Amino acid sequence: MARERAEALPYPVPHTQSPVQSQHCNLIRKVLCHTGWDWGPCLMVAGISGDISLQAFSDARIDYVMTMQ
């Protein structure tokens, strides 16, 4: 996504390879520490994936909970 947005710009965006591992990360809404700073790995895929929805109920309700680490 970041590369596509950079290529769509009418001007080049300078970048470096190190320590940031993900080029043009400033063109997407992502926490910069997920892009591979000197103290952490590049985790650009971290976050919500797929469709999400927000539903309202009058009573407290938990249908399904799953966590993976």
What features would you describe in this structure?
- This protein is mostly loops and 69 residues long.
- It has a domain at 2-34.
- Helices cover 10% and strands 0% of the residues.
- It contains one helix and no strands.
- The longest helix has 7 residues, at 2-8.
- The radius of gyration is 18 Å and the shape is elongated.
- The two termini are 25 Å apart.
What is the number of beta strands? 0
Number of helices: 1
Radius of gyration: 18 Å
**Percent range of helical residues:** 10-25%
In summary, what is this structure?
By secondary structure, the chain is largely without helices or strands.
Task: Please write out the topology.
Layout: H1 2-8
Observed structural traits:
69 residues; 1 helix
